[in-house]
């Protein structure tokens, strides 16, 4: 672990703790409201739209497996937390952000299940917020804490897939 990490950043980091989850919930609520009150067009007909439930299920599985692995290393699962270990085992060997990927799959699966064009606002909103605000903050923090070890990991594993 790099000793140059400044713990004074903790107050700033706490604001990131709830951003991914609240963004997911808010974007799904927006998608449901848009779907029922302002449906644009149905993209996927029944029963094919039910495949979205499988995607939601896989997203939930990916989130739980990723969190379970982080906990097995006794490191934080919170976006604003202080990681004690750089976890690179599966699924982290395929994606640097499998929890966010799982949450994105939940939003995408929900949109597919709802099947209207307007419902696809959910995964877009979630992706934009997490990819432009949360992940850059976390990457900067991991770089400060783990230094060259994180740099090597970042070069070898993609951000999403």
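^ structure tokens above, recovered residues below v
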């Amino acid at each position: 672990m790099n000793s140059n990490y400044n713990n004074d950043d903790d107050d700033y980091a706490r604001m990131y703790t709830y951003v991914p989850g609240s963004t997911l919930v808010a974007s799904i609520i927006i998608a449901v409201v848009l779907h029922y009150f302002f449906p644009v067009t149905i993209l996927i007909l029944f029963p094919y739209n039910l495949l979205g439930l499988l995607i939601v299920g896989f997203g939930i599985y990916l989130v739980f497996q990723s969190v379970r692995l982080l906990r097995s290393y006794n490191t934080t699962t919170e976006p604003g937390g202080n990681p004690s270990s750089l976890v690179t085992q599966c699924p982290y060997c395929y994606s640097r952000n499998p929890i966010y990927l799982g949450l994105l799959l939940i939003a995408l699966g929900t949109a597919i299940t709802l099947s209207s064009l307007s419902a696809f606002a959910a995964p877009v909103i979630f992706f934009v917020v997490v990819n432009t605000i949360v992940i850059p903050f976390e990457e900067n923090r991991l770089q400060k804490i783990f230094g060259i070890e994180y740099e090597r990991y970042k070069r070898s594993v993609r951000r999403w897939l």
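Confidence is low (pLDDT under 50) at residues 1-5.
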